[in-house]
Design goal:
2 copies of one chain form a homodimer. With 379 residues, the first copy, chain A, is of the alpha/beta class. Chain A has 17 helices and 12 strands. Chain A has a 9-stranded mixed sheet, sandwiched between helices. The radius of gyration of chain A is 30 Å and the shape is elongated.
């Protein structure tokens, strides 16, 4: 049974190992697992020692994983299951980053959410663990806006921006999904236990690591590829120059997802990496939830919101009327000749303009002289 | 004499009038002035009434202008003078914005600076009058950086960002130039009298308006085209949704100059217009003086600074060594088998990696077990 073979592979091979991805492009999971267990040969291909070593302990590790999964209420989903997000297979066609690539052989899930459905309209919001209050506030606001518009917010359940993104979704009573770098039965960081439990209550906690596996450094980097692949786009909020969230952005970029970044004060270290990514053309600037949704919907900046700026009453006046207004004062009445001389129009043009302005209630006639009807500032 | 004819035109026609620009593409200044004064005909072309009216008062306005210029120490420069910046003629080939276009017929200058030389390497730094302390600080810092690198900072001497940009140049004892919307003999805003005097002492104060002319609303908009045209690029720092500095950015864009914008907190109203311009693709993001200079030098984001981020000692290790480090602890010694099992490598790979890490002083051997040499954080 493929689900069991895939489970075996996931216990024997470090998730994200590009060598396994390469084998899976040619061989069935069952064949590869049999080869690892020494019961089959894949042509001339040599099975890595580490896989063979772990293969010899498979029966025991499978028992332990099953016990842990049962205790924590985890389910194992693989391609072919209804809950499997098809988008993950995009990972089979991208180059490794930091030594990881490939779709996961399966995922451990915890929580009430239906993963494939949650991913249908989803956006990753990630950023600095050591974020500023600015980053925290923006993460929570943007996530709330996206959640409110029906988009599932997916993040890494980490300190800082990630946690705030999940909380923004909670605020709207919307489901959210968290992808962990450790087993889906563990809480990392520990003090986010309640947050992770809440994610499971309203959405789903996800990991490709077997139950009980630790959040090793490299696993954060390989985990990031899942966050990028499960979503239609990634937004980075605050990232110092070396930040894991830029790694997620790179994954999103490689996967052809929409890459977005929220700018911040250039004087803040926490926005250095964000601005570098924007300058390098790796992310488009977004400042509000509705801009994120427009980018994800393929509408982009132009269709969504013309920055042609709202017109004032002043802008809608013909040029001569605008100039004439310039020559008028609120405090001192002026003759047509004085006005014409100040603004360099002909007296006939000024008279016509004053008629128009009077009809619009913008100027007052005082005998042969004219006044501004309202006080106005120059400039 | 063309200089005098141009002076006459500047006194009779509102600077930036597109009709004059159009005539100057065909006729000499002397012919146009003669036509305005009723002494000549330009084929079938009708001279606007306002021009003819003002033409009748030309002798007197010229006398007044000359007296004011003398008193304030202004000089009149026109095309053909050594101080004339050739770049201004680009304005003859762009469409009107807010009813203004065209190179000025001449400029009034005040101060020690040589305008053409100052403009050779120059950048406009403009922005909100009602800027925040963030905008003020950034304007002054970026201007100081540009000035220090030999670039003349040109701005509008207004409150807020403009004033801070000039002051940033002062800090580096560098020349700076200010383009006014009123006559070059006047101080606008009044309380910037000392700042404008200082600009004249180290650089040059510029206006296309005749001495004594007031800063009318439209004149700020036509003035902005000069700021854009005199420089190789414009940087906008803080601009609310309807801001004059976005008008300068539009001019720079029309003129094929480099258009740049400094991002800020998305929660700040003063950065709304800036972010809209960036999102509309009207400006590239800059965060530092050296990025501005790189953009102006045509190097752009990529050549100037790869956001490929500095490598740490950890990044330079081969993948197996990095994984092995992940399996080690600072507090508890582990055997090779334990490490291999944790990080899913073969024991042979782990042994080779430990040798390498030991040579680099990153791990310690304790009998048959291994420890991290230094404390490290996960993630």
């Amino acid at each position: 049974m493929t689900r069991q073979d895939r489970l075996g592979l996931s216990l024997v091979v470090e998730p994200g190992d590009p060598r396994l991805r390469n084998l899976l492009l040619t061989y069935e999971p069952a064949e590869i697992l049999a080869a690892i267990l020494g019961r089959h040969r894949l042509g001339e291909i040599r099975i890595p020692d580490a896989w063979a070593e772990r293969g010899r302990a498979l029966d025991r590790t499978a028992e332990i994983a099953a016990a842990r999964a049962k205790a924590a209420g985890l389910r194992w989903v693989t391609p072919g299951d209804k809950e499997w997000p098809m988008a993950l297979s995009d990972l089979d066609h991208v180059e490794p980053l930091h030594g990881a690539t490939g779709a996961p052989v399966g995922l451990w899930l915890r929580g009430v959410g239906h993963l494939a459905e949650l991913c249908e309209q989803s956006v990753a919001i990630v950023g600095a663990r050591e974020c500023t209050t600015y980053g925290a506030e923006c993460a929570s606001d943007l996530a709330a806006d996206c959640a409110d518009a029906g988009w599932t917010v997916i993040s890494g359940a980490a300190y800082g921006v990630d946690g705030c993104a999940h909380r923004g979704a909670f605020m709207m009573n919307a489901p959210t999904a968290g992808v962990l770098a450790c087993g889906a039965d563990l809480d990392y960081p520990k003090s986010h236990g309640a947050l992770i439990a809440r994610i499971a209550e309203v959405g789903v906690v996800i990991s490709e690591q077997a139950p009980g596996e630790k959040p090793l450094k490299n696993r954060f980097l390989s985990r990031n590829r899942l966050i990028a692949a499960l979503t239609q786009g990634t937004v980075v909020i605050e990232a110092a120059e070396r930040s894991g969230s830029l790694n997620t952005l790179n994954w999103a970029d490689q996967l052809g997802r929409t890459t977005m970044a929220l700018p911040g004060p250039v004087t803040s270290k926490q926005s250095l990496g964000v601005h570098a990514a924007i300058r390098a053309g790796k992310a488009v600037v977004v400042t509000r939830g509705r801009e994120i949704i427009a980018e994800l919907s393929g509408l982009g900046a132009v269709a969504e919101e013309q920055p042609s700026l709202p017109l004032t009453e002043f802008d809608r006046l013909p040029p001569a009327a605008r100039s004439t207004l310039d020559g008028l004062d609120w405090a001192a009445a002026r003759t047509v000749t004085e006005i014409a001389s100040t603004v360099r129009l002909g007296t006939r043009e000024v008279r016509a303009a004053l008629d128009l302005l009077e009809r619009r209630g913008l100027v007052l006639r005082a005998g042969a002289e004219w006044l501004l009807a309202r006080r106005a500032d120059v400039g």
